[in-house]
Amino acid sequence: MKKILLDRYGAPEENARCATVDDVGAPGAGEVVFDVLLFPINPADISFCRGTYRLRPPLPATPGAECVGRVTAVGDGVSDVKAGDLVITLQRENWAQQRRVKADDVIALPPRIDLRQAAMLRINPATALLLLTSLIDVKPGEWVIQNVANSAVGRLVIPLARARGIRTMNVVRRESLFAELAKLGADACVVDGDDLAERVKAKTAGGTIRLGLDAVSGRATHRIAECVGDDGVVCNYGSMSGEDPVMSRPALSGRGVRLAGFTLTRPLATYPRDKVRALYADLARQVIDGTLTAPVEQVYAIDDITRALAHAQRGERTGKILVAPTGSV
After folding, report:
1. Nearest CA among 268, 280, 232 for reference residue 252
2. pTM beyond 0.90
3. Cβ pair 321, 118 in contact under 8 A
4. Beta partners for 137?
């Protein structure tokens, strides 16, 4: 089978290669084997290849935080999934044509789900949902502010918030994105800048913002914190700037604004498996009914991983880059 191997940390397009390796073999007791149909190239995967991600395994290593696959065989004692089922996995190392994992680490999906959306289901939709629901009790009618609102997570926050009656203030780098986000249900959009707090206050007519979502870090965290009301929460879940979050002492001490961090694996690790399955079943339902969707710009073959990685790092893309290891999808 074919598998992506990373020989050195550094520029992903220079150090990741498509190799031919042994098949994964038959499943043992409690295991599942599936063909990988699609996997996305996420920012975390790029960071992994560069050696700047929180996980830095010995090399050669296989990247890949998520994928969608079809089960080909199950081992003794496996009853939750069967051959032919579509699944996602909670395990990593998914940039390959086949996977063999523990049955507890796969989650069955409805057969009618769109495969491209299913490939992107595990990380961004769950992240968007838990950012909205696990940090602070934002009530209907209140506001959430987020930067990089045109990102994969940001685009999902908007409809998830709207379904809960929560209004979104969406911070982006250029005004040309406003109409696009409005179609997703954005209540208001604003271009980032030093006077962000004043312009946000005018757009919300003084409405309460209790939660701020920051994927940029650096001074962008400070700007989001200045928009959040007293005793609110700013959650940092990314660092597009490559810097650490910055917040002012008056925001922290004077107004009681709390800075929190978020990584999806931490809350999921505390959930019993039935709760995890229920979470993804709900997200899959919202994908099928059209509530949640993420744009895809291009799908590559696994042999074209170099071109796919280069494309995934281009600015101003219109959607995610996917790879189809076992053929066109």
Report:
1. 232
2. yes
3. no
4. none
Return the CATH architecture of domain 2-122+296-324: Alpha-Beta Complex (3.90)
Please report, for the chain, the start and end positions of each structural domain, with discontinuous segments joined by +: 2-122+296-324, 124-263
Strands 31-40, 86-89: pairing is unpaired
240: which residues sit within 8 A by CB, 6+ positions away? 148, 215, 216, 217
Give CA separation, 102 vs 32, 94, 319, in Å.
Answer: 6, 14, 31
The separation between the first and the last C-alpha atoms of the chain, rounded to the nearest angstrom, is: 18
CA 134 to chain centroid = 16
Closest-CA residue to 129 (of 102, 94, 158) = 158
Q: Over its length of 329 residues, how does the chain's per-residue pLDDT go in tens digits?
A: 999 999 999 999 999 999 999 999 999 999 999 999 999 999 999 999 999 988 899 999 999 999 999 999 999 999 999 999 999 999 999 999 999 999 999 999 999 999 999 999 999 999 999 999 999 999 999 999 999 999 999 999 999 999 999 999 999 999 999 999 999 999 999 999 999 999 999 999 878 899 999 999 999 999 999 999 999 999 999 988 889 999 999 999 999 999 999 999 999 999 999 999 999 999 999 999 999 999 999 999 999 999 999 999 997 788 999 999 987 66
Report the interhelical angle of 43-50 vs 305-312 (nearest 10°).
Answer: 110
The residues near 110 (Cβ < 8 Å, ≥ 6 apart) are: 86, 284, 285, 288
Task: Pick 124-263's CATH classification: 3.40.50.720, 1.10.238.10, 3.90.600.10, 3.30.9.10.
Answer: 3.40.50.720
Q: How far is the C-alpha of 100 from the C-alpha of 102, rounded, in Å?
A: 7
Q: Give the CB-side neighbour count of residue 21, counting CA atoms within 13 A.
A: 17
